[in-house]
Task: inverse folding
């Protein structure tokens, strides 16, 4: 099974080989275009990309992680993961699914790295422990840091799956015993797509892969390196319970009548106002629900350092110890100046052009708060 | 003269695991199991609000997601003295039952099957013959010759493309691959179907817990309030979806997983005599039907079986001094009382101190500490935990339902009871219990509906939600049967904060290094006497290790008789000829 001269097969060729017609192929292209939210005039471009793009080699490393990201990835509904790994990418190394173990596994990876230098995508699940010279995570007798540096060198780009790879996640929570470190703090010379979440939503993970293979380019990122398509909105802004927040109607404790009536969970600790993710829009497991819809507040799992934001069930009036850059800092600054945290965060995410609306809401929200407290 | 082999990384597991084994005359004579990754979660939760801890420890594992959250909320509830409402108990049971179904099916097809199924051989199959076999063992509708022909074509094109992805360098063509091409095709088709199926069944977690992986739990019950008359709560539509998902999940288990398991197992009966191990089995018991405190009404019963003697089942006590953890061979600071002393988990410590070789290394020094896993013991004895242990304890306790299920499988395969104590037995037990649990999950669902129908809509007990209501000091244990075996968390709470927290997970029991008496744990013990046809391609090691469904990342390396590392193994993925 020699792959040397065959690694240039395009999606179009691959689809035709699988017995599909040109018409099927165009339908698929139209579906992908629709999925990506593109105009119908873009279908031809998508089709063209699929016809001419090489199948993308992917190496997926596992470091300090719990494999929830891989599990979430295989939960993707559109496209389903079998279609991704058989038709769209060549997933040449992943400890979770690959048939080979030991040296056979490592050999497969090195073959891909050599034959596709500068072409493969490196996916990383898990943080890298820098404590004690990297002794806290070894694979095949090598430290995670060494493995990462080697795999990153020939990568076209890196996808940092989940909060572990993009911010360190649970093992980096205080006191961070192993000095668990996210990927962008180690690799500085490659494009890195950060896909935070514990785990990220399956369709978001698949969507990023689809974006890369379809358009042949990386998705647009925000200033924290997250794909705008999936992380531009706060959970709070897309939450179906938001009207209850605006109206000042809150669950006071779990399972009270207000909770049963689906009121806002802000007072029982929901971190939706601080959290940028697609939970309110794409939702989970093909749109079935998301944490708030199922009665539990958002724990903020896609935000840097969320484990140390403070107790999950306390309302987010102040946001201590924000160490990261970007939005989280802004939230902290604003929160410091405003008494009611829930109101403060209202102000943060709104664009400058919406200031008036925000002011109006703050006033109204404060009134609501007063009414509740009294 | 013994030859030393190492497998690292062991793939198709959760975590980082490494196995080193000595081979003499084609059989393993000694083995060492090592986990090479640590995160220190037990240290991280110290000082935190006990109500938050479930979320931290849930991240111990994203494959058997939920189990650590459940063990944690049980530990905290046990410490504080909270009794959860019956609805919450049923919802937790349903979620756990769904996890069993999901986890065992994914393990069978995606983590274990490629040890037995030769994907490349499927290309030689006659789809019409596969169809005939499929229809003779099951009523599953996707079984036409055309269907299997499509699957075969798809795999053929995939292989021809030269980009083998996850199938690259697999053990295709290995002398120990025994299935006819037609069965291989059947299994490959169901590998792909199961991959699609698994994303459906977990939606039960999404309904009750908001997401999967890592659904939300709550100390005191569950957060998914019931309101049959409001879109804001669990109502008739949500419950109907749960019912449909469980039923569809059960159909797949009954009509695809079990027939495949039996069909494949019938070609590997020799594995009913391989991977036996020391023969001690332990179950903590789980699936309460009358509250966590009433262990006699658990679906899975607690107990210990020693030396394969099913006529006597010993009781497990999680709170007394039966269970101890040792760190004599683990990379942690020794206890002041000496490195050969164990501690009950309530007194346990997790002070990481790596003393292994500096990476990059060729092999571990197994004469000294060699793993990040600690070594738990029951009354000083090593225990095997997992589906087989649960069934054996139930069998030994005289549970008719379990006895009938086990006897039926033995009769179907025409193998003696002894065949249970093996690699094959472990894999078969997983399937047998999946059917039982699927039935129970429907029972739990009916109970939940009846409760609600009778007017009980409580989902959480919040009387003790506020820390002010807690005693100044308390401690608790949250035990359960995770899909991979006996799991427990021990918590000590002081001044409303987590004072100490220790987990002993199933893979701690099974994968640990040896104890101060030199006794091997389950992985090391069951590898003894395993035949290895080709030390360069240690498929047999992987089979036995995978039969436990490891939840750690591991690595196995190969050494020759002088301890030299065997270099790059040959690439056997060629199927062009």
Result:
């Amino acid at each position: 099974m020699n792959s040397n001269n065959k690694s240039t097969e395009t999606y179009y060729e691959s689809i035709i080989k699988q017995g599909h017609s040109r018409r099927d192929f165009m339908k698929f292209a139209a579906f992908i275009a629709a999925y990506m939210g593109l105009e119908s005039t873009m279908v031809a471009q998508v089709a063209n990309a699929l016809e001419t793009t090489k199948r993308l080699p992917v190496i997926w490393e596992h470091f300090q992680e719990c494999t929830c990201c891989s599990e979430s990835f295989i939960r993707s509904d559109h496209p389903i993961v079998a279609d991704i790994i058989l038709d769209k990418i060549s997933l040449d190394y992943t400890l979770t699914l690959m048939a080979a173990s030991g040296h056979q596994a490592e050999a497969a990876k090195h073959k891909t790295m050599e034959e596709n230098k500068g072409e493969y995508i490196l996916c990383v699940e898990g943080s890298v422990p820098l404590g004690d010279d990297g002794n806290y995570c070894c694979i095949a007798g090598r430290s995670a840091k060494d493995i990462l540096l080697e795999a990153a060198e020939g990568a076209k780009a890196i996808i940092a799956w989940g909060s572990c790879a993009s911010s360190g996640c649970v093992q980096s929570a205080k006191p961070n015993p192993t000095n668990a470190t996210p990927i962008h703090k180690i690799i500085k010379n490659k494009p890195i797509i950060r896909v935070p979440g514990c785990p990220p939503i399956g369709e978001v993970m698949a969507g990023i892969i689809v974006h890369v293979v379809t358009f042949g380019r990386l998705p647009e990122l925000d200033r924290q390196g997250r794909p705008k398509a999936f992380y531009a909105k706060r959970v709070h802004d897309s939450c179906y319970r938001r009207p209850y927040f605006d109206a000042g109607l809150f669950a006071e404790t779990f399972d009270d009548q207000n909770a049963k009536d689906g009121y806002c969970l802000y007072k029982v600790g929901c971190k939706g106002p601080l959290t940028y993710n697609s939970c309110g829009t794409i939702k989970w497991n093909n749109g079935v629900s998301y944490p708030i819809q199922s009665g539990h507040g958002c724990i903020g799992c896609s935000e840097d350092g969320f484990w140390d934001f403070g107790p999950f069930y306390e309302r987010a009036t102040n946001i201590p110890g924000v160490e990261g850059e970007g939005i989280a800092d802004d939230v902290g600054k604003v929160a410091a100046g405003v008494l009611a945290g829930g109101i403060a965060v209202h102000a943060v995410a709104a664009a400058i052009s919406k200031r008036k609306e925000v002011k109006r809401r703050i006033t109204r929200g404060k009134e609501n708060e007063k009414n509740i407290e009294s | 003269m013994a030859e030393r082999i190492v497998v690292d990384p062991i793939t198709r597991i959760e975590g980082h695991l490494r196995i080193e084994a000595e081979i003499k005359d084609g059989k393993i004579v000694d083995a060492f199991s090592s986990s090479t990754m640590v995160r220190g979660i037990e240290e991280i939760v110290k000082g935190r609000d006990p109500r938050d801890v479930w979320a931290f420890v849930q991240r111990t594992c994203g494959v058997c997601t939920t189990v650590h959250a459940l063990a944690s909320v049980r530990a905290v509830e046990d410490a504080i003295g909270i009794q959860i409402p019956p609805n919450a108990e049923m919802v937790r049971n349903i979620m756990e039952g769904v996890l069993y179904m999901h986890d065992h099916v994914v393990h069978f097809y995606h983590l274990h099957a490629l040890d037995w199924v030769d994907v490349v051989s499927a290309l030689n199959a006659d789809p019409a013959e596969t169809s005939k076999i499929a229809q003779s063992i099951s009523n599953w509708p996707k079984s036409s010759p055309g269907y299997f022909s499509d699957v075969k074509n798809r795999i053929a094109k995939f292989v021809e493309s030269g980009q083998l992805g996850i199938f690259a360098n697999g053990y295709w063509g290995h002398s120990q691959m025994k299935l006819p091409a037609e069965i291989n095709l059947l299994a490959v088709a169901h590998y792909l179907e199961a991959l699609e199926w698994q994303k459906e069944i977990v939606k039960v977690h999404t309904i009750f817990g908001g997401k999967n992986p890592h659904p939300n739990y709550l100390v005191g019950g569950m957060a998914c309030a019931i309101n049959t008359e409001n879109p804001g709560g669990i109502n008739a539509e949500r419950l109907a979806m749960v019912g449909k998902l469980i039923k569809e999940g059960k159909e797949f288990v009954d009509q695809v997983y079990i027939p495949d398991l039996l069909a494949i197992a019938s070609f590997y009966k020799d594995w009913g005599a391989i991977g036996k191990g020391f023969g001690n089995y332990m179950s903590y018991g789980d699936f309460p039907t009358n509250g966590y405190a009433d262990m006699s009404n658990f679906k899975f019963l607690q107990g210990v079986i020693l030396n394969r003697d099913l006529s006597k089942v010993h009781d497990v006590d999680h709170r007394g001094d039966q269970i101890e953890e040792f760190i004599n061979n683990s990379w942690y600071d020794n206890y002041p009382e000496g490195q050969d002393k164990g501690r009950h988990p309530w007194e346990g410590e997790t002070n990481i101190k790596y003393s292994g070789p500096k990476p990059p290394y060729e092999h571990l020094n197994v004469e000294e500490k060699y793993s990040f896993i600690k070594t738990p013991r029951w009354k000083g004895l090593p225990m095997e935990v997992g589906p087989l242990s649960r069934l054996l304890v139930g069998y030994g306790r005289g549970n008719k339902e379990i006895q009938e299920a086990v006897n039926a499988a033995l009769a179907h395969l025409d193998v003696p009871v002894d065949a249970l104590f093996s690699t094959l037995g472990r894999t078969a037990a997983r399937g047998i219990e999946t059917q039982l649990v699927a039935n129970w999950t429907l029972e739990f669902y009916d109970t939940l509906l009846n409760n609600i129908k009778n007017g009980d809509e409580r989902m959480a007990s919040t009387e003790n939600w506020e820390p002010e209501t807690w005693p100044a000091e308390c401690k608790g244990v949250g035990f359960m049967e995770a899909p991979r075996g006996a799991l427990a968390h021990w918590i000590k709470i002081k001044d409303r904060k987590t004072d100490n927290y220790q987990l002993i997970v199933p893979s701690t029991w099974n994968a640990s290094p040896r104890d101060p008496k030199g006794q091997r744990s389950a992985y090391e013990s069951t590898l003894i006497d395993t035949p290895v046809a080709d030390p360069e391609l240690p498929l047999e090691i992987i089979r036995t290790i995978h039969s436990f469904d490891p939840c750690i990342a591991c690595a196995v390396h190969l050494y020759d008789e002088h301890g030299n590392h065997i270099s790059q193994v040959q690439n056997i993925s060629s199927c062009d000829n």
Q: What stands out?
A: The first strand of chain B starts at residue 3 and ends at 7.
